[in-house]
Design goal:
Keywords: Membrane, Transmembrane, Transmembrane helix. The chain is α/β, with parallel strands linked by helices and 186 residues long. Helix content is 40%, strand content 23%.
């Protein structure tokens, strides 16, 4: 378990897995509503996701980052693509020794035979998404210039130890709820 002190009456433990999409947004909204109603002050959340839609990830980041509940995020397997932005909403963040992260630029597939004006709209949308996600990355993590260069054109993979050096996680530690605590799936 992390070095976080837990108080049974104000701490709660959750898992959140799957694609970052409108369904996940709805589930998280409902869960946080329940947390606030039940007096949860700190929510420990294990995230397992290979990503999804940028707009849904940004919505979740902004919602959780500004929530009255303090979120402590954990990665025990894989947090990738836009799920990394969701993960960064935590005030404290941890990753298991065998966990990995992956960040990359946005991508899209154009319809066959797409006209130049349609392609321009896609490109502008991708550039806007990249600007939004990169500003959040730069706010929370410190990559080396060579890592930013990889991120510019390819997938950047980080181990838990790499993530600690980059300040993506506070420490390499497992999601380990106290014995007897209820773990809820969001």
């Amino acid at each position: 378990m992390s070095e976080e002190k837990t108080t049974p009456s104000t701490d709660a433990w959750f898992t959140l897995s799957g694609d970052v999409n409108s369904d996940m947004v709805h589930r998280v909204f409902e869960a946080v509503s329940g947390m606030t109603e039940n007096g949860v002050e700190t929510a420990h959340v294990l995230i397992q996701s290979n990503g999804g839609y940028v707009s849904d990830g940004l919505c979740l980041y902004n919602f959780l980052f500004n929530s009255p509940v303090k979120f402590v995020m954990y990665n025990a397997g894989a947090v990738a693509s836009i799920a990394v932005i969701l993960f960064l909403s935590g005030t404290r963040r941890y990753a298991s020794e065998t966990a990995r992260f992956m960040v990359h630029k946005s991508h899209a597939t154009a319809s066959p035979g797409a006209r130049p004006d349609a392609l321009n709209i896609i490109v502008e949308g991708l550039r806007a998404d990249d600007a939004r996600t990169e500003s959040i990355l730069r706010k929370h993590i410190e990559l080396q210039p060579e890592q930013w260069a990889i991120h510019q054109y390819s997938d950047l993979h980080l181990t838990a130890r790499d993530a600690k050096v980059a300040r993506m996680v506070n420490d390499v530690a497992d999601f380990a709820p106290p014995k007897g605590v209820r773990i809820r799936n969001i």
